[in-house]
Amino acid sequence: MKTDIIIIGAGPTGLMAACQLARYGVNFIIVDRKSQPTAESRAMLITARSLEIYQQMGVSQTVIEQGKYIQNLSIFINGKEKVAFAIGKAGEGLTDFPDMQVFEQSRNEELLNGVLIEQDHPVWWNTEFISLHQQSDHVTVQLKRNGTNEAITINAKYLIACDGAKSKVRHLLNCKFEGGTYESRFFVADTRIKWTQPPNQVIAAPSKINFCAFFPMYGDDNYRVLGTIPKCFKNKEDFSFKDLETLIKTTTQIPLSFENVNWFATYQLHCRCTDRFKAGRCFLAGDAAHIHSPAGGQGMNTGLQDAYNLSWKLAMVLQNNAGEKLLDSYHLERYPFARWLLKFTDRIFALMTSSNWIISWLRTNLAPLLINKLVNKRATGVKLFKMFSQIWYAYRTSPLSLHTSKQKLQFKAGDRFPYVLTLIDNKLQSCYHLLTEPKFHLVIIGQEVNAEENNLNLSELKSIIKVIYLTSSKEWESLGIKQRLYILVRPDSYMAMVSDHLDQKIIQGYFDRLF
After folding, report:
1. Which CATH number covers residue 479?
2. Which Pfam families does the UniProt entry name for this protein (predicted)?
């Protein structure tokens, strides 16, 4: 059997890759040895950047309606609220999704799986990946379905490995996965809690001996509880959440009662990253490429961004709109972010969970004072939102980014497209509502068509470029635009080229680079 792409793993990353490839009309097969999407909630937060992908796909409203809006973040020490941070709408004016949203991994998988079913691209469930062999022009994959011994051979032009932290694909490709393992063990539980705390609030409760946090989930009084397992449980392998209840109540000192527990698990956390996101005709994405602590809710969202970045590039190559060299940019763009993310989450996690007495004292005494001074300042709130929502990240050093404008702009090629409101269908909306087609968008900001555009012939590129004209406005001027500006926007809403002038040679020259 032949296909263009085979995707190993149907978690959020694999499902997103499949949904994106389906948008481009690419032929693919996605397999997973599970029988259906994940039932456990697992990852919790969905970031603004991920919601912008869902908006482009036309399903963001489902997330908003079925998710849980987080309004406040509080830090409790010894039962007393030491930090109260109003994070609701912290990203106002930065994105169409200015708040933090809980939308569990299980719901993400249900949503994306539903999109694939609607598009007649069902996942091959109960299908186990066995082996792979790379040729110069394809990858041969061996699969086994429904627990039988009958092998299925698939010849694909490319392979995307989304098979998690223990990735068999990564192992067979001999890709390094360097890093470390946290000393402490951790627990996670989905519970129903009876207490007097307000809804839509995340509560962190560090103590001298452990760390515990509570995240609101969909429905009334439903919470995700997670934290470190104290040393007194070090030699215990078989214990339940019931065994931890008294300890949680004693260390947090927050009056509460657990009504029931829907899911409980313990685990060891790792902090690792592969040395190659691309190995021949195979690509690693999500947990198969990088794993880290859950601090900041970045894991699932980073996997979604990996898939989003890779899919449009594969589509362009397969549809002969770019050369294979384009695929090298996947590692060049996503690897640096993964390395930064590992360091970022590791530092946060160390502060929250370390048993070192100095860090423990800082965590319970000095840190709350410093955080209180900073978090309620608008500038700090904006900075934190940009960071945790992943809208700050840019590809300025990417070979796909070309900035030639001489204007003093507040953005450069490689950045995410600016968030600016404009009149669309007689309604004031963000420009992101115009960037929904699976292709490049040439955004021309100015008053009227000029001679340069009259001489511009995009007929050969019309299948991959949509032209959008926007009139100048005070918002654009505040970003430094003083004269006509041409912005070529990638299919993933990052700016590929920013120029004061545009002619056939410039636009054709850029796309010649992709070949």
Report:
1. 3.40.30.120
2. FAD_binding_3
- Within-domain flag for 154: yes
SS3 readout for 220-286: CCEEEEEEEECHHHCCCCCCCHHHHHHHHHHHHCCCCEEEEEEEEEEEEEEEEEECCCEECCEEECH
The two tokens of residue 312 are: 């449009």
Domain match, 280 and 349 both: yes
Does an H or E element contain 77, and which? Answer: strand 72-77
Last residue of a domain, one of 329, 356, 383: 356
- DSSP SS3 for 79: coil
How far apart CA 139 and CA 159 sit, in angstroms, is 7
Write out the two tokens for 470.
């926007």
What CA–CA distances, in Å, run from 328 to 23, 172, 402, 503?
Answer: 22, 20, 17, 28
Find out whether 321 and 464 touch, Cβ atoms under 8 Å.
Answer: yes
In a domain, 437, yes or no: yes
Which range (169-173, 277-281, 286-290, 470-474) has the least confidence? 470-474
Same domain membership, residue 407 and residue 352: no
Q: ∠ CA(263), CA(97), CA(119), 5° rounding?
A: 70
**Which tokens belong to 298?**
């970045």
Most distant pair of Cα atoms in the chain: their distance: 77
Position 115 pLDDT exceeds 90 = yes
Portion of the chain with pLDDT greater than 90, in percent: 61
CB-based contact 65:50 (threshold 8 Å): no
282-331: pLDDT as tens digits = 999 999 999 987 766 788 999 999 999 999 999 999 999 999 999 999 99
The model's pLDDT over 428-443, given as tens digits with 9 standing for 90+, comes to 999 999 999 999 999 9
Look up the domain containing 328 and give its range: 2-41+104-175+276-356
Report the Cα–Cα distance between both ends of the chain, in Å, rounded.
Answer: 29
- Same domain? 19 vs 118: yes
Q: For residues 307 and 17, is the Cβ–Cβ distance under 8 A?
A: yes
Say if residues 433 and 493 touch (Cβ distance below 8 Å): no
On whether residue 202 sits in a domain, the answer given is no
